[in-house]
Amino acid sequence: MKMVKSLILGSAAALVAVGGAQAADLPVKAKAVEYVKICSLYGPGFYYIPGTDTCIKLGGYLRADVVVNSNSDHTGNTSGAGGANNRFTNGYTWRSREDLNIDTRTATEYGVVRTFFDATFSWTSDTYAGQGNGATVYSPIGAVQAPNNANSGAVAGGTVGVYYAFIQFAGFTMGKAVSQFSAPWANYPGNNFDGLVGGGGTITGVNQFTYTAQFGNGVSLSLSAQDQTAYYQAGVNNILAGGAYGTSDYAGTIAPDLVAMLRVDQAWGLFQASFAAHDNHAAYYGGTELTGHPDDKWGWAGQLALSIKNIPTGPGDTINVQGVYTNGATRYNIQDLAGSAGANTVYGGTGLPGAYQSVGIGVAPDSVFGAIGGVNTGQQLVTTWGFRGAYVHNWNPYWNTSIYGAYAGITYNDTAKTLLCGVGGVGGSVRTTLNALGGAITTCNPDYNIAQIGTQTQWTPVKNLTFTADLTYTHLDQKYAGTVSAPSAAIGKPAALYELKDQNTVTLLLRAQRNW
Q: What is the residue-wise DSSP string for 431-455?
């Protein structure tokens, strides 16, 4: 019986195993394939993320730039090696870039929830800097240089940038987006050149918390608090810290910039009024708390912008103009991509006997402070005004040409001029620093103007593929006169006398771009 029982149990186990194998071999009904569905709620290019009610759109561009006569791929040649006009000045700077953006939207009972992310991956031909000993060192553009010429923070010799990363919900915008102060065309009323003065920019976005109210018929009002640190600090310059214009002496962050913007956007065009309040928060007069500090001073900026569409000269022709005035908020005029943010040093030729070359100087911080006669001055705010504009004409669906221009004026008050220039031709940080080695400034006035004019032609042979040539002329109208000592080993400039003189520069941007 025991053996019979074992045989019966063994047979049962075998039958179960065979049955399991046969069951595994039987065809099973496959799950229905969930195809990606088009989402027509938010325009072309959106698709539903499978299994959700969220729509997503991928976009971007691939761009190749060549900038002629500049060491920068965006700001022109008004400082550093670009402004040297010698063998350290690049004949060209080349950049290749891929942009990727991800746009998601979900309909909710509170309205659409939107997220937007935009990143760039760039590879830029770089430049060389002198070491003052007959040798040069490689100076990567857009990357932090580490010892032995390694690129810390770079990706295989290139750079990664996060332009936009924000959430929009129930009228709020939270994250990194273009400043509400900026006109819709930001830095580009009719150009691709990044370095125009005359208005707000932050084309790469700024951290902000914004509420926008829509009143209908294209009328909206935005109230915003935005980070000032990355793009809106032009300098709170401490004259006591040394240097011709002092040294920027910021304290820690204390208050964001406050922005209000009213916009009317209709079929005829657009009108916008913007206002920004900017807190200038400096550290100490000296190295410690015992030296005291200047009080905070709030600066401000106001801007008006106007766009007129479909003017009689042709279908799609446009005029974009804007004007701005600032006091202690310089970057809302001389935006972060314009000429090293308002620190211009351009060299040129001279006919003055005894002078080696000429130099034009223009510096525009938010404020300067120091001491006069042993008495601390507090912050002295710098005033600027400016405008920019363009006219764009479409010759046909494939060709268009624009003419554009920009202007900015920078003015220091009397106390600031005394800090920089002294009294009666004696003292002052500019005179003391730049008169070294026998220089003689005969007119000391830190005010200056910048004028720019340019033209751009674009050819779009097929949809989303555009070739551009953009020529820009810049004139630096500085108010100094006489001679100074302006050496710079990094760009090969010797310790010699330079005539203080207005300067002119020209750059040409050639671009190919494929949007997708």
A: HHHHTGGG-EEEE----EEEEEEEE
Whether the Cβ atoms of residue 55 and residue 40 lie closer than 8 Å to each other: no
Tell me the CB-side half-sphere exposure of residue 378, using CA atoms within 13 A.
6
What residue segments make up the domains of the chain, in order of their start? 64-101+183-515
Give the pTM.
0.88
CATH number given to 64-101+183-515: 2.40.160
Tell me the pLDDT tens digit for each residue of 159-203: 889 999 999 999 999 999 999 999 999 999 999 999 999 998 888
- 58-112 pLDDT, tens digit per residue, is 999 999 999 999 988 878 788 888 999 999 999 999 999 999 999 999 999 989 9
Between CA 52 and CA 47 the distance in angstroms is 11
Rounded Cα distance between 383 and 364, Å, is 9
Q: Look at the block and give the residue holding tokens 């125009």.
A: 196
**C-alpha span between 474 and 501 (Å, rounded):** 14
pLDDT in tens, 422-450: 987 778 999 889 988 788 999 999 999 99
Where residue 21 falls (left for φ over 0; alpha for ψ -120 to 50; beta otherwise) is alpha
Q: Show the tokens assigned to 366.
A: 């938010």
Q: Quick one: residue 354, left, alpha or beta (phi over 0 = left, psi -120 to 50 = alpha)?
A: left
